[in-house]
Amino acid sequence: MLKKILLGVAVLIAIPFIVALFIKTDYSVTRTVTIDKPVTEVFDYVKHLKNQDNFSKWAQMDPEMVKTYRGTDATVGFVSAWASENKDVGVGEQEIIAIDEGKRIDFELRFLSPFEATEPAYMTTKEVSTNQTKVEWGFSGHMNYPMNLMFLFVDFEAMIGADLQQGLDSLKVILEKE
């Protein structure tokens, strides 16, 4: 009888680990908005990381957040760092790692607390017409096995996508007011 109970417990413990073998470990989220401004004006705004403080949901979650900057904004190597007591914000930094002028800016997000991760993100701008620009904001992430089990319970793509869309909608309002 004891052997059957132990075997049953072992199976119950093993099931989540077996399931995790078949769950994705990566996710990617993109959202877009069309802004009624020329592409050069939009790109010149979004390539400055300090401007994200004006439209990013995450930058506005904690008014007490400490922000520091290193380098020259809107250039490769510029780092925008944040530190917050709010566990939803945490501590980390974002670095510009590539710029394709007028078209794309790539970032590396380094989360330091409450968890550690390094993930890529980007923003692109594409001319729709002379006075319209399509902006795409993208983010990718990874969850190692067996933590990827969280994908069964949390829809990271929808959650992060909603935050990206809120930021893009704010960006549209800001730029179209000017």
UniProtKB/TrEMBL annotation:
InterPro entries: Polyketide_cyclase/dehydratase, START-like_dom_sf
SUPFAM superfamilies hit by this protein: Bet v1-like
Protein name per the record: Polyketide cyclase
Species assigned in the record: Shewanella litoralis
Pfam families xref list: Polyketide_cyc2
